[in-house]
Design brief:
277 residues; alpha/beta; 48% helix; globular
Length: 277
C-alpha cells in the first residue's frame, strides 16, 4: 500500500559540494527513510549526469526534474527577453540543462527562466514563442520532458495560469507540458479544481506548496481535497514538495511527510467507504 497519495518528491537547492556534504547526505538519507520517490534539484553543474544518478541511487532516489530557477537568476537568463543576445544565450544554456536531464532520465522545469514580472506582455509572448520553437526543435533530438511552470503575476509576466501554459503548449504542437503549483494557483486560478481537471492531459507532476509558501500542512490549503480530486481523475504522476523552510529543512520535511501520509490515509478510508457502500 502506498505511503503517500502519489509518488512523493521534493525540490532542493543542493550545496556546491553536494557529493561531499554530510548535511545534504543526511537529508537524502531522511528522504529515503520516509519513502520519497525522487528529488528536483536546482543545479549549477551539468557536467556528469551519471555521477549524480549513481549518487542519488545510493539513497533510493532519482532525479525527477532539473529545476532551472537558481541557475537562471544567477546568470540573468530569460526565454522572453527582448535582448536577443540574452534570449539566445538562454536557449543555449537550457539546451545544456536538457541534455543533462536526459542523461538522468529527468525532466526540465521552466519557471523563473521564463522571464520576470513587469514585461510588456505582447512582446514577451513573441519572444517566448521564438524561444520555445528553438527549444522544441532541439528537443526533437534530445527527447526530454519540458515543463512550463505556472507562476503568479508578482513573479512572472507569462504563464500565470494553467490556461496560459496550455496556450503556449498548443503553439508548439503540444511538445511541452505545463507544471501547476498549488501556491501560485491559490493566487491566480479562479478554481484550482477546475484548472487541474481541464488541463489534466498536460501535466505529470504537481508542485505542492501551501498558501503561505511553506510546505504542505503549514498553511490553509486543503491538500486532501486536491489529492482526492487527482485520485478521482486517475492521475498517474508525481507530487513535489516545494517552498520556504519554516523551522528547519529536515524538521519541515518530517512534518509535511506526516501530513501527506494522513491525507493518504483519509483518501484510502474514503475509497473503502465508497466501495463498501
Amino acid at each position: 500500500m502506498s505511503r503517500y497519495p502519489f509518488p512523493l518528491c521534493i525540490q532542493l537547492t543542493p550545496p556546491t559540494n553536494l557529493y561531499e556534504n554530510p548535511d545534504f547526505a543526511a537529508t537524502l538519507a531522511q528522504l529515503q527513510k520516509l519513502g520519497f520517490y525522487g528529488v528536483e534539484l536546482n543545479l549549477v553543474d551539468f557536467s556528469n549526469a551519471q555521477r549524480l544518478t549513481e549518487f542519488l541511487g545510493r539513497y533510493g532516489l532519482r532525479l525527477t526534474m532539473v529545476a532551472t530557477g537558481f541557475y537562471a537568476n544567477r546568470n540573468g537568463l530569460s526565454l522572453s527577453s527582448t535582448d536577443e543576445a540574452v534570449r539566445h544565450r538562454t536557449v543555449e544554456e537550457l539546451a545544456k540543462m536538457m541534455r543533462f536531464a536526459a542523461g538522468c532520465g529527468a525532466g526540465v522545469i521552466c519557471g523563473f527562466i521564463k522571464g520576470g514580472a513587469g514585461q510588456d506582455k505582447a512582446r514577451a509572448t513573441e519572444q517566448m514563442l521564438k524561444s520555445l520553437a528553438e527549444v522544441t526543435a532541439l528537443n526533437d533530438e534530445i527527447q526530454v520532458p519540458i515543463y512550463l511552470e505556472s507562476t503568479n503575476h508578482y513573479e512572472a509576466t507569462l504563464v500565470n495560469t494553467m490556461a496560459e501554459g496550455a496556450a503556449f503548449a498548443r503553439q508548439v504542437q503540444n511538445k511541452i507540458f505545463i507544471l501547476p503549483d498549488t501556491y501560485h494557483m491559490n493566487i491566480e486560478e479562479e478554481s484550482t479544481a477546475y484548472a487541474l481537471t481541464r488541463h489534466q492531459s498536460l501535466y505529470h507532476n504537481l508542485h505542492v506548496s501551501d498558501n503561505n509558501r511553506y510546505f504542505p500542512g503549514f498553511g490553509a490549503i486543503d491538500f486532501f481535497s486536491v489529492c482526492a480530486l487527482l485520485k478521482g481523475m486517475g492521475y498517474q504522476g508525481t507530487i513535489s514538495i516545494e517552498g520556504r523552510v519554516k523551522h528547519s529543512l529536515r524538521e519541515d520535511i518530517a512534518a509535511s511527510a506526516a501530513y501527506l501520509e494522513e491525507v493518504n490515509r483519509r483518501i484510502l478510508r474514503l475509497q473503502g467507504e465508497n466501495t463498501a457502500g
